[in-house]
Write a structure and sequence with these properties.
about 50% helix; DNA polymerase, domain 1; hpI Integrase, Chain A; 4 domains; mainly alpha; about 350 residues
């Protein structure tokens, strides 16, 4: 309901009630201005673009702070990641009203981020902003999100570096002895660095040859059921891991020099410190690239995508194909062979029918 009335002081008072029944009013010197404002507001209400004047002043900083409070029920690692992203968001939109951020502003911000951050990081931070803006729309704080297909920086997909077997063993030999089990767990079990650092002796069935990841550093549950899929290992690897347990006597497979649990940072530092000693390894080689080597072993052995997905503990085969699809051999030739076989079968059928008819 909306109305305009003249006050005793000569000003015109325009007022309306929003969908929640709350009354809003503004005063104007001219009736035509009051009517124009009221028309604008009622049109916004009717089109679904209405924003409460009280929340229209909310800044990006303030909304991010309110948003992360409601995000605190997630796992600690997930919350830490969100807080890192929010630092970049606040730095780019400091003091800006949430309702004043335009798609062009988002595009300029992502371009600025790309000057100092890797493409994958820029995409992750942008996706966080899109999530925060979408929740602001859901709460009725802004009518629409400035993030969309046109503003997305695109997700960088680089083909993973795959080390040779010689390079893997070269890195293994170069690593400190107490961290060598981490190389085995990455290259031959496919564990991520946080999973390798947290893998407990009790998570390995040495007799049956099964690794059962349950937690990630620092003692947090794994993110998905797929990540907890047991991984079978050969007897030779079980013996290597068992020997490491006997040597260092810790509660985890990967330890520091005196048998205490190691950390992902200690493992990554050791990889970076020793990768230059291995011929052919690129300067950016990371522990996670050992997981890519594991995938390449499975694919080279002729295992199909569903088996590779299970061994890598991916939640979906789509992830496996997006990352390693180029490694599966002879895709083009196999397709040609399949079509050629169908054509050959048709030709044989036609020839056979022709012979029968002639007889």
């Amino acid at each position: 309901m909306a109305s305009i009335g003249k006050r005793p002081d000569g000003q015109w008072r325009a007022r309306y009630r929003d969908a929640a029944g709350k009354e809003h009013a503004r005063h104007f010197r001219r009736k035509v201005d009051a009517q124009a404002w009221l028309d604008q507001v009622t049109t916004a209400v009717g089109s679904g673009n209405y924003v409460d004047p009280a929340t229209a002043k909310l800044t990006v900083d303030a909304w991010c702070d309110r948003w992360i409070e409601g995000y605190g029920t997630r796992k600690p690692g997930t919350v830490r990641s969100a807080k890192v992203h929010i630092k970049h968001i606040k730095a780019g939109f400091a003091g800006r009203k949430l309702s004043a951020v335009k798609p062009s502003d988002v595009k300029s911000w992502t371009v600025a981020l790309s000057q100092t951050l890797a493409p994958s990081t820029v995409y992750a931070v942008y996706r966080r902003l899109a999530q925060i803006m979408a929740d602001a729309v859901h709460d009725g704080i802004i009518p629409r999100s400035p993030c969309g297909r046109r503003t997305s920086p695109g997700q960088a997909r680089q083909r993973p570096y795959v080390a040779t077997t010689e390079q893997v063993w070269g890195l293994y030999d170069a690593m400190p002895e107490h961290l060598r089990p981490a190389v085995l767990l990455g290259a031959f079990v496919g564990l991520r660095v946080a999973e390798a650092a947290a893998l407990r002796v009790s998570d390995v069935d040495f007799m049956r040859g099964i690794v059962k990841p349950e937690i990630q550093y620092p003692a947090e549950p794994l993110k998905s059921d797929a990540s907890r899929t047991p991984v079978p290992i050969p007897q030779e690897l079980a013996l290597e891991l068992s020997a490491a347990v006997q040597r260092w006597g810790g509660s985890t497979l990967v330890t520091d020099p005196i048998g205490r649990p190691s950390s992902p940072w200690a493992i990554e530092r050791a990889v970076r410190a020793n990768r230059a000693t291995v011929k052919g390894l690129p300067p950016g080689f990371r522990y996670h690239d050992l997981r890519h080597y594991f995938a390449s072993l499975l694919i080279a052995a002729g295992l199909d995508v569903k088996v590779v997905q299970t061994r890598l503990r991916h939640a979906s085969a789509v992830t496996t194909l997006n990352t390693y699809g180029h490694m599966f051999p002879d895709k083009d030739e196999s397709a040609r062979a399949a079509v050629a076989a169908a054509l050959a079968a048709r030709a044989d059928s036609v020839r056979t029918q022709g012979v029968v008819t002639a007889l």
